[in-house]
Amino acid sequence: MDASSTDPSATDRSSAHSPATSAAPHPLAPYGWDEGWAAEFAGHEGRGLVPGRVVRVDRGQCDVVTGDGVVRADTAFVTPHDPLRVVCTGDWVAVDADGTPRYVRAYLPRRTAFVRSTSSKRSEGQILAANVDHVVVALSLAVELDLGRVERFLALAWESGAQPVVVLTKADLVSDPAALAYLVEDVERSAPGVPVLTVSALEGEGVDRLAGVLGRGTTALLGASGAGKSTLANVLVGADVMDVRATRDMDGKGRHTTTTRNLLPLPGGGVLIDTPGLRGVGLWDAGGGVGQVFSEIEELARGCRFQDCAHLHEPGCAVLAALDSGQLSARRLDSYRKLVRENQWIVAKSDARARAGLRQDWKRKKAEGRAAWRAKRGEWA
């Protein structure tokens, strides 16, 4: 006879572990809620607030998904003077449980943040998305690839703390497999340590592989207007949630069909943040990200004779030696120099100490240039 049929405690033990009596998943789990966020929110529970994730922000108002659905909330209580501390898409927040209007009372500390510099002259950064696990940089194969722009996106992605992924969209427009493989290799050389995938959203090719790479976390979708982000978002979400318009035949550019950042749940788990097409992608204190993108140059620089080598004309420069031998391309080095200078400039604009150091560095290089010019002039005499 089965022992469980005569042992009441066995029945109790089996029912205790039955799926029917196990704890139900948190209603915000599909949006990324986990034990870590629960611990961060614990201090707000006693105030009668409820947790939620910001899915859209619009002029002082935001849509927040909570356990009871999506609610509209005002951000007046969490709008500081610092533009990097305003509520943005992807934030986890503490919001009023009820009331009209409802207010966001606080947002939880961010795990990651994707930030770029603004086009203003006030040395400000703009936060595009928060708490992102993957940053997908979408590039259209309908136009010539801009590798410098790829490196710029990747520097910001690495600096954010997320894992970047490059997706070459509209792969169906490249009919020659050898040509497509060459394009992928070209991007891979500019994106060390970054997966480079090809996708045809219209034909569904490569979408499953991309979904597998992204997993169940939060993904931010970035790229220029016309890169096919909205089409890709619709395929990943499995519904026509984003408006799609044709690109211009003359240059392949789009028309900014996405005008706000939206957080969309994915059918296989995780969420997608679709962003507007970015005309400008300025660096914002992204020194670490630049170093990650140009890791081979950073590695070569360790062999330079001088620790502060600028890789311009210094003797014993390992980077210039690699350039002369063909190990390093001139385009890659030029892009590295450009992003390093830009990042130093934006940091100096907002940091007085860094600004003074940069000014001293300019004076030193200017003096070195004059000395070299005088020496050359003496040789000609």
Give the class-level CATH name of the largest domain. Alpha Beta
The biggest sheet amounts to: 6 strands, mixed
**Strand ordering within the main sheet:** 10-9-8-11-13-12
**In sequence order, what are the helices and strands, one letter per element?**
HHEEEEEEEEHEHEHEHEEHHHHH
Number of strands: 13
Total domains? 3
Question: Helical element count?
Answer: 11
On the 0 to 100 scale, the average pLDDT is 80
Radius of gyration from CA coordinates = 26 Å
What is the CATH architecture assignment of the largest domain?
A: 3-Layer(aba) Sandwich
Q: What global shape is seen?
A: globular
Helix content: 25-40%
Beta-strand proportion: 15-25%
CATH topology heading of the largest domain = Rossmann fold
Question: What is the fourth-level CATH superfamily of the largest domain?
Answer: P-loop containing nucleotide triphosphate hydrolases
